Amino acid sequence: MTGAGVWVIDAKRYKDQRPSLVVEGGFIRPRVEKLIVGRREQTKLVDGMLRQIDIVQQVVPEVEVRGVLCFIKADLPLFGGWFEVRRGRVCWPKRLAAKISTASSGRLIDVDTTVRALEERLFSA
Q1: For the CA atoms of the chain, what is the radius of gyration?
Q2: Which residues, including other chains, have CB under 8 Å from residue 26's CB and lie 6 or more apart?
Q3: Residue 73 DSSP symbol
Q4: Could you tell me if 2 and 100 are in contact, meaning their C-beta atoms sit under 8 angstroms apart?
Q5: 31, exposed or middle or buried, with CB in 10 Å at 0-12, 13-18, 19+?
Q6: What is the distance of C-alpha 69 from the center of its chain?
Q7: What pLDDT, in 10s, does the model give residues 82-95?
Q8: pLDDT tens-digit profile of 2-25?
Q9: Rounded mean pLDDT of the chain?
């Protein structure tokens, strides 16, 4: 049994480009969060991660499902290395490993049952 839940990790390789969050609006206009990688808007990556979270959540509704876009070979900042965008997170491998090792949803789950449910309902990538 563990309290960490299920992590959906979508690994992305963008060499020497830094992911960042740009927020527009929020007071008079609706708040819009955009993921920028290098100089290009890549919010579609967040949309894809959120779809994956929703699919896994449907399979195991009793378990907390967390989503992460993990950037490999990206231009790493000196500080931070982790930010939230909508219902997901963006990070780098070392930061993700640290977050997963200390995460706890506060609820215990049966890992074997959860893994079986995911294996039965989802296709391998």
Answers
A1: 16
A2: none
A3: S
A4: no
A5: exposed
A6: 5
A7: 899 998 899 988 88
A8: 456 889 999 999 888 989 999 998
A9: 85
Q: How far apart are the first and last CA of the chain?
A: 26
- The DSSP code sequence of 13-71 is E-TT--EEEEEE--SSSPPEEEEEETTEE-HHHHHHHHHHHHHHHHH-TTS-EEEEEEE
Amino acid at 117: A
For residue 7, give the amino acid letter: W
**Type and span of the H or E element at 93:** helix 93-102
pTM: 0.80
Alpha-carbon span 121 to 108, nearest angstrom = 22
> Can you give the pLDDT at residue 92?
87
Distances (CA, A) of 75 to 18, 27, 35, 48: 5, 32, 15, 22
